[in-house]
Amino acid sequence: xxxxxxxxxxxxxxxxxxxxxxxxxxxxxxxxxxxxxxxxxxxxxxxxxxxxxxxxxxxxxxxxxxxxxxxxxxxxxxxxxxxxxxxxxxxxxxxxxxxxxxxxxxxxxxxxxxxxxxxxxxxxxxxxxxxxxxxxxxxxxxxxxxxxxxxxxxxxxxxxxxxxxxxxxxxxxxxxxxxxxxxxxxxxxxxxxxxxxxxxxxxxxxxxxxxxxxxxxxxxxxxxxxxxxxxxxxxxxxxxxxxxxxxxxxxxxxxxxxxxxxxxxxxxxxxxxxxxxxxxxxxxxxxxxxxxxxxxxxxxxxxxxxxxxxxxxxxxxxxxxxxxxxxxxxxxxxxxxxxxxxxxxxxxxxxxxxxxxxxxxxxxxxxxxxxxxxxxxxxxxxxxxxxxx
Length: 389
What we know:
Number of helices: 11
Structural class: alpha+beta
Low-confidence stretches: 86-109
Shape: globular
Helix content: 25-40%
Mean pLDDT: 85
């Protein structure tokens, strides 16, 4: 016999969440995703709530409130929400597939709406560690980590920046090194970003980089999710800067040092800026990671304590300590290798004895949901910045 564990039918204001709910699933962040059909009034929706029942958002088509009737629902490993959509056209039923993920939803809106949302998140953050030379920021759907990411991007002063390196972990292909794009531009809803071909040629000349396949380039979200924020904070310098996307594979300690040495010369140049793409702990049975220190309190508090041990090693800018932490706790920080490259680059600069004063500080930490049961799951996010003087 099954056991009822929870009923979710109203949001936190008391309003009904559903009209005619038909199908239900759960994504990797532990959110409950419901296909609400709508019937005669065509007011269907995809409704997303946290596992605890707090309403996250409802997608009602584009433009909002259009004739939208989802007929099924599922999620993929990246927490994209997939549904079949029934459209009435010339008396024919046409079934099409569409993606609904926080990032995808925002991107289906006009660029000005995305721009406004980014402005809002940036306005709520303080430039307490500006002007930064590098940041660590998350790459999940914006509904989960957009606000957290704003704290990192608020530390950027675009005045003198000419080149932005984006180091993102590879989620789809196995790499033992790093790869560079072969494209000339990346598109965003705000404006296109130009790839720095000269820097790419310099990096290829080291023989340490391979070329990224177009399919890999298109699929990888760890770089993609940072492009709108970069376009937004660099808006007044549009056309006056370039980007260098770098896909980072599973690196050995020696290769982290190698790439750190290569990138250190670029990090030393105040006209360059580095974006390090990483989420933090992926906790839950679906991630095959359920470390729980009960002395910390609830599971979510144990996760936070675990993450902050790693964040402390990063703030100390100690690659060996960060590596030891990962070996001891095996925390599922997906950007561990890009972070390792940054720490190795900082270490290389220190060893050169150039007299620069460097410090790193995290400004914000968040979790997609607060886990309280072993059946729950969540992803953590952190935003930090590197100062060089």
